[in-house]
From TrEMBL:
This is Ca-activated chloride channel family protein. Residues 1-28 form the signal peptide. Keywords: Membrane, Signal, Transmembrane, Transmembrane helix. Residues 38-227 form the VWFA domain. It comes from Actinoplanes regularis. SUPFAM superfamilies: vWA-like (SSF53300). It comes from the Bacteria. The chain crosses the membrane at residues 401-426. Pfam families: VWA_2.
């Protein structure tokens, strides 16, 4: 069993790249994102925003001032859009009310005057169709391959389910479009907090609460600024299979996939005779998981013989569960050579000539959840191939034997001399 810390050590060193024989499989894109920060602010303008419980003012008044301050502080190259929900329909027809979301500022270079004028006209009105607003916001941002952020600001939970906003967030994450949803709760109650945490967790975003204008302004600025910082590594999207035969062949890099509860995912890696495979897997727990769960990362031969495994398990709340392993091709070569020697010399030569071993990486989990979803959980798989760490032979004495002999003779002479001196001293003491 690989110790839990190994996964952390492995993950820090898995960005190197080496070439494999044959066609090059997909690898992680490590180029720096040159696209400007792209973000859409989604503001709840439902009837509950009339409540005057933030510093003696209504929530909408505080939100408007915070928005204006944020717009003034935005970097010039920011691509900004603003969408609202529950802002126009005050009637009792819930079917109509739950379609009430509009983009009031299209995504583009910041126009402070346009943004402020659009925000100034907002009045708390209707329902809270968060799920629909998230879908529409994703469409507003499009998909140019760069990371985009939605910042959702609301004072309450969705009142228009379905669609459930957590499921919408999982659907967006499963599309692999690098879309992150950050959520901000205005004086949130516990039900609202749980829903907002669920939304942000599903997409790798963050959740924060704000109970004052200063807190709201601060949080929104932080989230918009974060959109300008590209992730250090953009994982390549890969799809594991149900067996090793048809599994994708992966080069060193970082990959993303999705795995359903209790599912097994297979991938292949070609390991040269002088290389060591280091791999780690992390699964984000984007929904409530029952106690006593685990993640297993296993390396095996194509015929199913297990080579090494790394696992991690838990029973309490955590956001990510990881496991890691390392395996050297020397181990496989030694096993093959030993087996071949037991058979015949021709097989021995064949074992020695083996250039590469195709290893199957298997990702498995022991999750159980009451939340049923067609989308699996986010998986990040890191792979690296490094020079094999050869186990040194047992140390021989070599020239050290002569040194040991000198030490032994010196010790013997010192003992004899000490004995003579002691006898002389005792004899002299008795005479006196």
């Amino acid at each position: 069993m690989i110790h839990k810390r190994l996964s952390i050590l492995v993950a820090t060193g898995l960005i190197g790249a080496t070439s494999l024989l044959g066609a090059a499989p997909a690898h992680a894109d490590e180029t720096e994102n040159s696209e400007p920060p792209t973000v859409e602010l989604v503001l709840d303008v439902s009837g509950s925003m009339k409540a005057a419980d933030i510093d003696g003012e209504t929530r909408i008044a505080v939100a408007k001032r915070a928005f204006n301050k944020v717009v003034d502080a935005l970097p010039e190259n920011t691509q900004l859009g603003i969408r609202v929900l529950g802002a126009t329909y005050a009637g009792k027809n819930k079917k109509i009310a739950c379609q009430d979301t509009q983009q009031i500022v299209p995504v583009g270079p910041v126009n402070a005057v346009q943004a402020k004028n659009a925000i100034a006209t907002l009045k708390p009105t209707g329902h809270t169709p968060i799920g629909l607003a998230l879908k529409k916001a994703a469409e507003d941002l499009g998909d140019n391959g760069s990371t985009r952020r939605i910042v959702l600001i609301t004072d309450g939970e969705d009142t228009c389910t379905p669609p459930d906003p957590c499921d919408v967030a999982r659907d967006l994450a499963a599309q692999g479009t690098h879309l992150v949803v950050d959520t901000l709760g205005l004086t949130p109650d516990e039900k609202t907090r749980k829903q907002l945490v669920c939304i942000s967790t599903a997409t790798g975003g963050t959740y924060a609460a704000a109970n004052s204008e200063a807190e709201l302004t601060d949080r929104v600025k932080q989230l918009v600024d974060r959109a300008a910082v590209p992730p250090p590594v953009q994982p390549a999207v890969v799809t594991g299979t149900a067996d090793c035969t048809n599994a994708p062949l992966l080069a060193p890099g970082v990959y993303t996939d999705r795995e359903k509860i209790s599912e097994h995912r297979y991938y292949r890696v070609a390991v040269q005779a002088d290389q060591e495979l280091r791999a780690s897997v992390s699964i984000a727990l984007d929904r409530a998981i029952n106690p006593d769960y685990g993640v297993l990362l296993k390396a095996a031969t194509k015929d199913g013989r297990e080579l090494v495994r790394g696992l991690d398990a838990g029973s309490g709340r955590t956001d990510v569960l990881s496991a890691g392993l390392r395996w050297s091709a020397d181990e496989q070569k030694a096993d093959a050579k030993a087996s071949a020697e037991a058979a015949d010399n021709d097989a021995t030569e064949a074992a020695e000539d083996t250039d590469a071993t195709e290893v199957c990486l298997i990702v498995a989990n022991s999750f159980a959840s009451n939340v049923v979803s067609a989308n699996g959980m986010p998986v990040e798989l890191s792979i690296d191939l490094v020079d094999a760490s050869h186990v040194p032979d047992a140390p021989g004495l070599g020239r050290g034997f002569l040194f040991l002999l000198v030490l032994a003779i010196a010790g013997l002479l010192a003992g004899i001399l000490a004995g003579w001196v002691t006898r002389y001293w005792v004899a002299t003491w008795r005479e006196n």
